[in-house]
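To fix ideas, we reproduce below a protein record of this kind.
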Amino acid sequence: MGIEEKITFWLEVSAYDIDTAKAMLDTGRYLYAWIYVSPYTHSLLKLAKGAGCYGDLLETQKDLLDQLDPLNIEARYPSNKEQLLKQLSKSICTKLFHETKEFTEWISKKL
């Protein structure tokens, strides 16, 4: 698979995952909304650095990744599901969803 095919593949996966996260958000399944918007690595900041785009990120984007990183790990491996659920209100998840969607659109344009 060439680089263009890989980019197309991951853009399609990203769009599908954003749609899935929206469905989880709409149905109030906040814990699971974040499983679908993060890659298989556990550190979004590490992924950004590895991709060579960390320096291009705005501070607000870096802040978003900082907020999503612990949710990504806890959603995949919930050691204290009830505590995490208490932190994930509809307003918090809606805000994070919209910021994440904007971020993925920004990444898509960069590619």
Observations:
- The radius of gyration is 14 Å.
- The longest helix spans residues 3-26.
- The mean pLDDT is 82.
